[in-house]
Design goal:
Length: about 180
């Protein structure tokens, strides 16, 4: 059985590409909920390291949502003018005691405070599909998950439920 991070634990999040190389590392996220099905974490102004070694700092508090059954995760970013979401299409998460990990499959959905959204990086997906020889069964999975993710956004389900980010942000503040 997969282990999972414990509430209050500070962990790293690692995303990889299909070829096994590291894509991005978020250096610290406080676990607010950790079960074998769902991990919810919070962070604020943390260091993110890119594959090329470049580092940058996030600009706002964020609540991250990972689901063990879904090929996507979401980051709800709390900004002055509302909550923006950045959703990554990728494998369901694993946790090995070192970090929460997933494979990033390029496609992203950006969701605006009014819950309108945009699918991003389709060209990057096509390029990496060729370069990294994505298996043929991957595309139908991702298409299904994009549709499901959009339906969650439209229905206000999961991390898009009204009040979800605010609720977990209040919990995050208790660890600061």
């Amino acid at each position: 059985m997969m282990s999972f991070p414990k509430r209050g634990e500070n962990i790293e999040i690692h995303s990889y590409k299909h070829n096994g190389l590291i894509h991005r590392i978020w250096e610290e996220t406080v676990i607010l909920k950790g079960t074998s099905n769902v991990v919810i974490g919070g962070n604020d102004r943390i260091i993110v390291e890119e594959a090329d070694g470049r580092k940058w700092r996030t600009r706002e508090p964020a609540i991250c949502y990972f689901d063990a059954d879904r090929w996507f995760n979401s980051i709800g970013m709390i900004r002055q003018d509302g909550i923006y979401y950045y959703c990554n299409l990728g494998t369901p998460f694993t946790y090995d005691g070192e970090a929460l990990k997933y494979i990033d499959y390029d496609l992203d959905i950006k969701v605006y405070p009014d819950m309108t959204y945009r699918l991003l990086d389709e060209d990057e997906f096509e390029e990496h599909k060729r370069k990294m020889n994505y298996p043929p069964e991957l595309e139908p999975i991702l298409e299904r998950e994009v549709e499901l993710l959009i339906s969650w956004i439209n229905q206000g389900k999961g991390p898009f439920e009204p009040g979800f980010v605010e609720y977990w942000y209040e919990r995050f503040l208790q660890y600061r």
